[in-house]
Model the fold of this input.
Amino acid sequence: MIATNRRYDIDWIRVIAIGLLLIYHIAIGFQSWGIMIGFITNEKPWTSLWIPMAMLNVWRIPLLFFVSGMGIYFAMQSKNWRQLLTDRLMRIFLPFIFGMFVIVPVHMYIFRDYYNFTQVYDLNNPGHLWFLGNIFVYVLLFSPLFIYLKNHQEGVLTQSIKKVFGNAAGLIIVIITFVLEVVVFKPNPYELYAMTWHGFFLGLFAFFFGFCFVLSGEPFLKLINKWRWIFLIIAFTNYVIRVAGIKLWGAEYLIPVESNLWIFSVLAFGNRYLNHSGKALSYLSQAAYPVYIIHMIFLYAASWLIFPMEIDVHVKFILVLTFTVGGCLGFYELFIRRWKYVRVLFGLKSEQRV
Done:
């Protein structure tokens, strides 16, 4: 049987990643091109805000895919394959369908109203919830393999995976895989993940490798902790070269390298400093998923209210951030967390976790 020790660092990383997602989406509203990807944008842009966002945009979504693969490892420990699929159906597919029919149309209504566009009810637009659709497909694809690995701990395949990802060869394999993905799909830009084949296969690989990382246990953790500063330094160097506009041969292939090194760094430093519980984590780890689902409604509402104001752009950013985060957490606390039939629509168990 696989060890089931709770990894609080993974919970913290998931919470932090979703928090960064909110900040990233808010920042898009302050870029002149935001409207082209369906965001309400401020008339006066804050272009320098994109400098730190450019660091996040190559690894924030891949990190969530990795963490989702790690999460399925823990979710399956006390479940057979039927229970696993039922659980994922309720916690991923149901929120995806509910969100596509209810949540996305609300924030798109706000968007169209702001720009005086014709209102339409588009049932084919998953919006930001495309991520959930991908995850559910990955669960269906990988469940037979993952269940096999769970039930054959001493088997050749399981032991081989543990051996590979317990040394540097495993990390090299991961990086090469993502470089080859870029060679095949030629994404432009790299961070165009939503509803693209690039995003689908990038997520597929990250989901699988995330599971393998946790399966590999302590040897993997020792490996990334040993090299964490090297990962961070190389990743940051690549980022500086990229944002400085320095043209290097094969620069498009350096982006997946940078992306994975950032992720290895986050996993290593997270494991070193965040592997502890507490009331804050207990609350936020439950709130993070519903907040991800509803955040676009509050972001668009904040943009609709605040962007027309004649105030400094930096003040606007603070107000939009405060309104979005406060609105999401308030709605979660008052309307999602307390009602069991509502909880299940947002991917939570019907009973509150103490």
